[in-house]
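Entry 12.
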Amino acid sequence: MRKYDGYDQTQAFTGDYERMEPGGYVCRILQVKAEEPEPGTKNYDTLLRIGFDIAEGDKAGFYKRQFDRKKQTNADAKWPGMYYQTIKADDLRYFKGFITAIEESNTGFKWDWDEQKLKGKIFGGVFGEEEYLGNDGKVRTSVKLQWVRSADKIRNGDYTVPEKKLLKGNNSTHTPIETISDDELPF
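Predicted 3D structure (tokens):
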């Protein structure tokens, strides 16, 4: 077998991925983009796209590390730490809850309807597991930000981890692993 160029400089992949566990984490907002509805459309909701990372503890910088790893093999990799906050004109309580958590987490910060001022602010995030259907058709599990709370609630352990969100029609909490003997391998 021939030696490939760049082999000596390549970092080895050993199959060990850093994994986010369900629970509470203090996070920092890195980017914010407000998507306003088109004038005259029936949809009058605004969507805030919020890029964030873990700010404290042993998982600090988790999404940056994930992004850097993905960027090595995919120049078009997207930032993995995203939260989407809908602002509904006829039901503002969820958005106000989000803003209240940001205000409580950042001394002296008062919301003034300039979403760019959210950059650099911290908040408490409650993360839970949810199932999704992988590209291979198998049920997989990921850990995602479910709720925003004040950073102090997270630090004090004053939160509840949500139950795992199962895919519709999947009543199990895990995917069985198919075992194949060496005799069945295709080579």
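Annotation: Strands lie at 23-35, 46-54, 82-87, 122-133, 139-149. The first helix runs from residue 62 to 73.
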